[in-house]
Amino acid sequence: MSIFSPYTFSHSGKVAKNRLVLAAMTNTQSHADGTLGQDEYEWLVSRAKAGFGIIVTCAAYVNHDGQGWKNELGISHPNHFKGLARLAKGIQAEGGLGIVQIFHGGARSPLEVTGKQP
After folding, report:
1. Backbone dihedral region for residue 100 (phi beyond 0: left; psi -120 to 50: alpha; all else: beta)
2. pLDDT in tens, 24-53
3. pLDDT tens digits for 58-100?
4. How far is CA 13 from CA 10, 40, 106, in A?
5. Residue 92: enclosing H or E segment and its boundaries?
6. Neighbours of 105 (CB within 10 A)
7. Do the beta carbons of residue 74 and residue 80 sit within 8 Å?
8. What is the rounded CA–CA span in Å between residue 6 and residue 95?
9. β-bridge partners, 74
10. Which residues contact 86 (CB under 8 A, 6 or more apart)?
């Protein structure tokens, strides 16, 4: 089996064109409200264009009180969904399969970011 052979996720049937995976990286390129930033979009889509079969986003907070840092991608509010859908379409258009890394900062979520004491 080659890293260039397709990979099928057995639970969903989704197929990645190869086994090359862009690991999740924290790059703080989203907006303060957690919506997708243009730089983040372009970076991730360009990785699909470069040939990665699977693109994993940076950590995306699942609840505002679990946000870990400023300009972190969010997946906790309907305002986030339009950008995430755009990102998925952009990655797919370049032949990649997108995966969102979900995240909650827990006790390390900073008060100055969330407005709440962890």
Report:
1. beta
2. 988 899 999 999 999 999 999 999 999 999
3. 999 999 999 999 999 999 999 999 999 999 999 999 999 999 9
4. 5, 27, 32
5. helix 78-93
6. 19
7. yes
8. 12
9. 61
10. 36, 41
What's the chain look like in SS3? CCCCCCEECCCCCCEECCCCEECCCCCCCCCCCCCCCHHHHHHHHHHHHCCCCEEEEEEEECCHHHCCCCCCEECCCHHHHHHHHHHHHHHHHCCCEEEEEEECCHHHCCHHHHCCCC
Residues 64-76 as b or e (16 or more Cβ within 10 Å = b): bbbbbeebbbbbb
Place of tokens 């243009």: 38
Find tokens 């064109």 and name the residue. 17
Rounded Cα distance, 79 and 33, in Å? 9
H or E stretch covering 113: helix 111-114
How would you class 87 by CB atoms within 10 Å of its CB: exposed for 0-12, middle for 13-18, buried for 19 or more? Answer: buried
Q: How many CB atoms lie within 10 A of CB 37?
A: 18
